[in-house]
Amino acid sequence: MAPAALTAALLGGGLLLAAWRWLRAAARPGAGAGASMRGKTVIITGANSGLGRAAATELLRMQARVIMGCRDRARAERAAREIRAELGEREAAEGGGELVVRELDLASLRSVRAFCHRVLQEEPRLDVLINNAGIFQCPYMKTEDGFEMQFGVNHLGHFLLTNLLLGLLKNSAPSRIVVVSSKLYKYGEINFEDLNSEISYNKSFCYSRSKLANILFARELARRLEGTGVTVNSLHPGIVRTNLGRHVNIPLLAKPLFNLVSWAFFKTPLEGAQTSIYLASSPDVEGVSGKYFGDCKEEELLPKAMDDLVARKLWDISEVMVGLLK
Ligand SMILES: NC(=O)c1ccc[n+]([C@@H]2O[C@H](COP(=O)([O-])OP(=O)(O)OC[C@H]3O[C@@H](n4cnc5c(N)ncnc54)[C@H](OP(=O)(O)O)[C@@H]3O)[C@@H](O)[C@H]2O)c1
C-alpha cells in the first residue's frame, strides 16, 4: 500500500473509532435511572477505584448513604473528594445522599473485624453490601494471616466481612448482597489440597479460582438465606478499563497499542458498574437470589460453579480459615 493510502486508512480508522467511542460515552448507561436509594445504606468494598468508585458515584447520585470500604485512607479520601466534586455541590446538597470513608483491608482479618465492629456500632441499618474489591494476577504474596493473596482478598476477606454483617443485613431486610466475580471463573478449580498455593502457584489460575469461589459462595449463601429477605447474587462486569491490571507487565513498546485497544474496546468503569448498580437498586430483581448476571441480565453458569457439594465444602473450610469456627 502506498504511504499516502496507508496514512489515510489509519486516519480514517482512527476517526471512526473515536466517533464510535464518543457515541458510546454519550449514551450514558443508566441501570439505576430513576430509582431512588434515599434512606438506604450501601457498603462498597474497593470503592476508591474502577468499578467500585463508579458504583459509589451512581448510588450517591441516587441519594444513598454510601460507605466506601477502602484499604488506603488517603486514596479513599481523595476519591471521595473527587466524587463529590463530580456530582457538584447542588446535586450533593439536594440529594440527601452521603459518602463515608472507612478503612478496610481485606488482606487482614483483624482489619475486617475492626471495620465490621465500627459498622455494627454506628450504622442502624445496612441495605446493600457490594463485595467489589479485588486483586488480579499478583506475584505470589500472602495476606497478614498467611493466605495466598488473591484467594485471601477476593474470597476469604469478603467471606468474613459478609458473615459479620449478616445480622445487620437481616435486621434491615429486604436487603441485598452483590458479589463481583468474573467470567474468568471458568478457568478455576477449587483445589482443596492446596488453597494457599504452597505446592504450586499460578497467578492466572489463582485469580480464576478466587472468582469461582465468589460464585460458589454467593450460591451457598443464597441457599442459607432463604426466607430471610436478604438476597445475594453474583455478576461479571465484562472487560473494563480500570486499575485491575496493575500487576500485569505489558512490554513498553506494546503499551501504546494496548492503551489504544483498551480505550476503544474495553468498557468504561461506569459501563462496567451497571450490573452492580442494577443488582443493588433495581426493583426488577427484588426477591431474586442465587443467580449470576452479566449486562444486567441473568446468565447461565458452567456446572463447576453450580456444584453444591463443592460450595458447602468451601464454606465449611472458609469458616475455619477465617476463625468463625474453631
Ligand atoms: N476490570 C475488569 O475488566 C474486571 C473484569 C472482571 C471482574 N472484575 C472485578 O471487578 C472488581 C473491581 O475491580 P476493578 O476492575 O474496579 O479494579 P481496580 O480499579 O483495581 O479496583 C479494585 C479495588 O479493590 C481494592 N483492593 C485491592 N486489594 C484490597 C484489599 N486488600 N483490601 C481492600 N481493598 C482492596 C483496590 O484498592 P487500592 O486502590 O487501594 O489498590 C481498589 O479499590 C474486582 O473484584 C475484579 O476482580 C474486573
Compact summary:
The protein has 10 helices and 8 strands. The protein has helices spanning 3-26, 50-61, 73-95, 109-122, 149-171, 203-224, 255-265, 269-272, 274-281, 308-321, and strands at residues 41-45, 65-70, 98-103, 128-131, 175-180, 230-236, 292-294, 297-298. The model has no long low-confidence stretch (mean pLDDT 92).
Descriptive overview:
It is a single chain. With 326 residues, the chain is an alpha/beta fold. 48% of the residues lie in helices and 12% in strands. Strands 3-2-1-4-5-6-7-8 form an 8-stranded mixed beta sheet, with helices on both faces. Helix 6 links the parallel strand 5 (175-180) and strand 6. The protein starts with a helix and ends in a 5-residue tail after the last helix. The structure holds NADP nicotinamide-adenine-dinucleotide phosphate (NAP). The site of NADP nicotinamide-adenine-dinucleotide phosphate has 30 residues, from helix 2.
Percent strand equals 5-15%
- Report the structural category: alpha/beta
Helix-strand pattern: HEHEHEHEHEHEHHHEEH
Mind summarizing the main beta sheet?
8 strands, mixed
Q: How would you state the average pLDDT, rounded? A: 92
> What's the number of domains?
1
Approximately how much helix is present in the residues? 40-55%
Low-confidence stretches: none
What is the level 1 CATH name? Alpha Beta
- Which fold name is given in CATH as the topology? Rossmann fold
- Assigned CATH superfamily: NAD(P)-binding Rossmann-like Domain
Rounded to an integer, what's the Rg over CA atoms?
A: 20 Å
**Sheet with the most strands: spatial strand order:** 3-2-1-4-5-6-7-8
Q: What would you say the CATH architecture is?
A: 3-Layer(aba) Sandwich
Number of helices: 10
End-to-end span in angstroms?
A: 71 Å
Shape: globular
Bound molecules: NADP nicotinamide-adenine-dinucleotide phosphate
- Using DSSP, what is the number of strands? 8
Organism: Gallus gallus (Chicken)
GO molecular function: all-trans-retinol dehydrogenase (NADP+) activity
InterPro entries: NAD(P)-bd_dom_sf (IPR036291), SDR_fam (IPR002347)
Family: Belongs to the short-chain dehydrogenases/reductases (SDR) family.
